[in-house]
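step: validate -> pass
step: tokenize input -> pass
step: predict -> running
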Amino acid sequence: MANVRPAPDGGRFRIPGLREAGVLFLVTTGLSVAGPRALAADTLSLAAAERLAIERDAVLQQLGAESAGMRERAVAEGQLMDPKLRVGAVNVPTNTFRLTDDDMTMVEIGVSQEFPSGRTRELARRRMTQIATASEAAAGDRRRVVSREVRRVWVELAYLAAARELVSDQAGWVDQMRSAARARYASGEGKQIEVLQAGLDVAMLREQQLDLDRDVAMQRARLVRWLGEEAAARAGPFTIPARADLEPLGELDARLARHPAQVDFERRIEAAETAVDLARQANRPGWMLDVGYGIRGGQMDGKDRSDMLTAMVSMDLPLFGANRQDREVAAARAEARGLHEMHVDHQREMSAMLEEAYGVAERIGDLERFYESDLVPLADQSVQAALLAYRSNRAMVDEVVTARRTALETRLKHLRLSAERAQAQYEVDYLAGEQP
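step: predict -> pass
step: emit ->
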């Protein structure tokens, strides 16, 4: 930054001539604004705030529970169905209802076991595992979203704190100018319009302070949403990160393929393709084994009656595949194709978002440099010139106030640009991942 030198108050920077103008301008190394509370030993840093927000996030907890549930279900899907037990009486005569009167009567105990068709169990287990992996990828995307949102609130609070300090300094200076204008008017050297103009500027700055207070309350509420009341009260110091060189857009775009949201789509597409294979298994016959043991009591012709063993195999006959199994396969294919198209569109969307965020960060960075090298120093010089003219009675107080207001607006715009540049950088980090 041009014409900037370190100040002895530790970490902050002053632009030459600004002390005399009564305004402290904080520039990004990063830019930091913290009150006495924020300097306490138990303050919560940005990194700690991100970790806490991730731990507290209900959506992440839900996705974790869903993933765990899917993995448990994958184990269950890979198992055979439970066997079925049969117990009952067979061929009981209705005239006596006795089990020993007829040679065909017996008490039967049987067990049956179903075996799904083809590779149904293996594919069902694989599909559930793929869905669980997709949920884990969605959780990775959510973690990036939470970190980005906490950083955004952090930067906004840093901007608002610095802006309030600038406006407060300006208000104190203008109040002094109003007192000086009143004294000049009382002595007959000044004009009433100077007193009125200074009073109007004080009121306008008060309005600006109230607007900033409103915005601070809004951002504080958002921070409480992510951190909770107690942690949000300990958050700070709020900083705007220093401007850094951006990696080449081509390298960032190449990293989009590893974005968790892309991995989520890929795993869901794999699960949909597995569902197609799963639907095809219905064209193969499933079968069931049924084994029964019949116990016969009593005697017939003086001989004990022998027990009976029964073993049977049942098979599915997929004879009507055109309107059943084939339709299921076609439906699964259509769902997989739809997911693939959504994935392609999502890739294009994320690539466009990255290009936009990259362009915004780059252009705002250029504009931020221009403010630092040209506009801010020129605004300072205009304030000094107006003050010198006023002290030598060659300018009215409203000219000094106007110059100071322009300088304040220039600094606020510079501060706003720093915050917007950081927000754009956070969007780039969310999309491409932070620099390794």
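step: describe -> Residues 119 and 217 are 59 Å apart (CA to CA).
step: cleanup -> pass
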